[in-house]
Design brief:
By secondary structure, the chain is of the alpha+beta class. It folds into 2 domains: about 70 residues, Ribosomal protein L6 (Outer Surface Protein A, domain 3); about 80 residues, Ribosomal protein L6 (Outer Surface Protein A, domain 3), CATH 3.90.930. The protein is built from 2 helices and 13 strands. The protein has a 4-stranded antiparallel sheet with strand order 11-12-7-13, covered by helices on one side. A 3-stranded antiparallel sheet has the order 1-6-5, covered by helices on one side. The longest helix is centred in the middle third of the chain and has 22 residues. The radius of gyration is 21 Å and the shape is elongated.
Length: about 180
């Protein structure tokens, strides 16, 4: 039995969940999320808890069991509390600022990089060296943060670039003098 898959998912009071065939609709204070569940996985909703059940013990069913449970749990958590990723910008002259709903990055290129966000994502810059990305869809928040980080990944010699908050960048020794 999957350790993650067999855990029940608690449904908070403000969250409403509906299942139509293989389609799950999760509605809460932050908004509404939709996801298509694999046809082999069965969801049982009872006593403000969701249980994910698998049909048999094949390799595919075991893999889908934990995955489905994690996806549903992320939907429930997203519509009730939301998700947040923080990015730090390290480097002399590197900075970020919000211009309307767009993010303007100055990170050492000859031109500024302008990033447009989907409607479900909220971005802010509390300081010029910090970016905060918020949203209710965990996958979309993570993908957006990864895209911003990909514009200038932290390099190992001076540590300059865009990194996740709390990320440790392994440093290398530079050239040794003669």
């Amino acid at each position: 039995m999957s350790r993650i898959g067999k855990l029940p998912i608690k449904i908070p009071e403000k969250v409403e969940i509906r299942q139509e065939n293989n389609h799950l609709i999760c509605k809460g204070p932050k908004g509404e999320l939709h996801r298509t569940i694999h046809p082999d996985m069965k969801l049982k909703i009872e006593n403000s808890e969701i249980f994910v059940e698998r049909p048999d013990d094949t390799q595919q069913s075991r893999a889908l069991h934990g995955l489905t449970r994690s996806l549903v749990a992320n939907m429930v958590e997203g519509v009730s509390g939301g998700f947040m990723k923080k990015l730090e910008i390290v480097g002399v002259g590197y900075r970020a600022e919000m211009k309307g709903k767009n993010l303007n990055l100055t990170i050492g290129y000859s031109h500024p990089i302008i990033m447009h966000f989907p409607d479900e994502i909220t971005a802010s810059c509390p300081s010029p060296n910090e970016i905060v990305i918020e949203g209710m869809d965990k996958e979309l928040v993570g993908r957006t943060a990864a895209k911003i980080r990909s514009f200038r990944k932290p390099e190992p010699y001076k540590g300059k670039g865009i990194r996740y908050a709390g990320e440790h960048v392994r440093r290398k020794a530079g050239k040794t003098g003669a």
